[in-house]
Structures are given as structure tokens and as C-alpha cells.
């Protein structure tokens, strides 16, 4: 494609199509099922530098839970 772009005058928009996952058995998203909710929140805070609020929100999204449930589990309520 790079050679084609060098030889051809590009006019307008270009659409690049990329194939999907060739290995559907390979997990695309991790759920971290081996970690407790509190451990996952801590992991996100440490490894991604998220605030506790953002880590709780992300954990709720990953685990398909309500933010309130994650908040309570994280803070020990």
C-alpha cells in the first residue's frame, strides 16, 4: 500500500478495512475473574493510574455490575 501511495496521487478520502479476530477462541477482553472486585479496582488504580472513582467505574463495566455494588465491595460496606 505504501508503494501504491507513493506512485498514485491520492484524492479524497481513503478507507482502510482491517480484518477481525482470526482466533475467536482468544479472549478480546479480560474480565480478571481470578481477582476480587476490590483487587481489580486496586489493579486498575495501580497499573493504569486511575482514580478510585474511575477504577470503580471501569470495574463495573468489566464485570457488568452497578457502580454502587463495586463501590460497596471496594469500601467494605
UniProtKB/TrEMBL annotation:
For this entry, the protein name equals Uncharacterized protein
This chain's source organism reads bioreactor metagenome
Taxonomy of the source species? unclassified sequences, metagenomes, ecological metagenomes
